[in-house]
Design goal:
This protein has helices at 12-29, 46-61, 80-94, 119-122, 138-142, 164-182; strands at 35-40, 65-71, 98-107, 110-117. The chain has 185 residues and is an alpha+beta fold. It has a domain at 35-119: 2-Layer Sandwich (Translation Initiation Factor IF3), CATH 3.30.110.10. The protein has a 4-stranded mixed beta sheet.
Length: 185
């Protein structure tokens, strides 16, 4: 120890300001991960399912964890396998870039699982640099050519609901699209 002890006279206001700036900078660099919840029901339609899966995809790409909840009502409790099948379908769609933190389990009337983003899968693949600089067209070689889709292409969709109304509406939509494409311009 030094004799007399070493001390420094400083401006306390300036010291507090600098400490606040350091704390602000560290908060700026940190990321805030929150848990988002998306709820499903066993009798969900295909369009609603696709919309909710797109939302899950968006949340995952933003870096949030997602709690996927299957809600059962009334007699739906007798068939939890229908709920687990839908949760498996969700996992099948977004499963390439998520990690399952908590497996699907039944808690009362709800079945839930927690998905978190897989950092390795979300990173874009690194394109190795080629030494072929003589061609001068390295950007065109790295990007794929755009794909054109014909206007008359129709997609077959199976209705999830049973009954004559659901099947008629699904079959009627492609006919309208094909008729519009067949008309002369």
């Amino acid at each position: 120890m030094a004799n007399p002890p070493v001390c420094r006279i400083m401006d306390y206001g300036k010291f507090r300001y600098e400490e606040a700036q350091k704390a602000k900078e560290s908060r700026k660099k940190s990321t805030n991960v929150s848990v988002k919840e998306v709820k499903f029901k066993p009798k969900i339609g295909r369009g609603d399912f696709d919309t909710k899966v797109r939302k899950i995809d968006q949340f995952i790409h933003e870096g949030h964890k997602v709690k996927v909840t299957m809600q059962f009502r009334g007699r739906e409790m007798a068939h939890p396998e229908l709920g687990s099948k839908i949760l498996d379908d969700v996992l099948g769609v977004v499963g390439d870039y998520v990690k399952v933190e908590t497996q699907a389990r039944l808690e009362g009337r709800n079945m839930s699982m927690v998905l978190s983003p897989d950092k390795k899968a979300l990173e874009p693949p690194k394109i190795p640099k080629s030494d072929d600089r003589s061609s001068g067209n390295t950007a065109a070689a790295a990007e794929p050519a755009p794909v054109e889709v014909a206007a008359t292409e129709t997609v077959d969709a199976e209705p999830l609901a049973t009954g004559s109304d659901a099947s008629e509406s699904v079959d009627a939509a492609p006919a309208v699209a094909t008729r519009a494409a067949a008309e002369p311009s």
